[in-house]
Design goal:
Length: 86
């Protein structure tokens, strides 16, 4: 298939984003997986070699808790807690 002169885009034209996009939100659907995620749960992606060793969240949490216990306690470095609006 031959490329025509009119079909060539410069690298600047092909990399640019449009200034505005129009989305049809009426076709949107609720996230079907949202119910599986607990409110206080954080999801972290593991590299494949690490995921081969730690196959469950329990195994990851066990090792991380053991590492946390060995860390020296420092003043002023506390985890920020969520403020309740009550």
């Amino acid at each position: 298939m031959k490329k025509t002169e009119g079909s060539k885009l410069t690298s600047k034209e092909s990399d640019d984003l449009l200034p505005e996009y129009k989305f049809d939100y009426s076709k949107g659907r609720p996230n079907r997986f949202a119910a599986r995620i607990q409110q206080e749960e954080v999801t972290v992606a593991l590299d494949p070699d690490v995921a081969e060793v730690f196959t469950t969240s329990e195994s990851v949490n066990t090792v991380l808790r053991a590492i946390i216990e060995t860390m020296p306690k420092t003043k002023g470095r506390t985890r920020a807690r969520k403020q309740s609006s009550n």
